[in-house]
Write a structure and sequence with these properties.
The protein is α/β, with parallel strands linked by helices.
Length: 121
């Protein structure tokens, strides 16, 4: 993601490892699944590499569409296939069920074009 040019994931992982060493608690990481973008076997492998050594559980959340961005929601089959890949890579995770999408109230849908202009993408 472009935001990682400014805040690299390697530095985030270093910080998470350091914090977890000082405060031994499990982290929850949120992973937004984008249809056809980050649900491949390579994405699962990269997620496994990132979480390796961390005590984490990953919440898999399907993208909830908003008019301002062109991403698509992965199909239920795509979500389940990605979950199966993570099982194979032994990544602890939960496949979340989205609620409120039909009324624009699901996770991520409360963003507006005004809010999106402020994001450091």
């Amino acid at each position: 993601m472009p935001v990682n040019k400014r805040w690299p994931l390697a530095r985030l992982k270093e910080a998470l490892l350091a914090y977890q060493e000082a405060v031994p608690k499990r982290f929850t990481l949120e992973y937004c699944m984008l249809g056809g973008v980050n649900t491949s076997e390579e994405s699962a492998r990269q997620l496994e590499l990132f979480t390796r050594g961390l005590d984490v559980i990953v919440n898999l959340i399907a993208w909830n569409p908003i008019d301002e961005l062109e991403f698509t929601t992965p199909s239920e089959e795509e979500q389940k296939a990605f979950s199966a890949l993570l099982n194979r890579y032994r990544v602890k995770h939960t496949l979340r069920i989205s609620r409120g999408r039909e009324i624009g109230g699901a996770c991520g849908q409360l963003a507006t074009s005004k809010n999106l202009q402020r994001l450091p993408l």
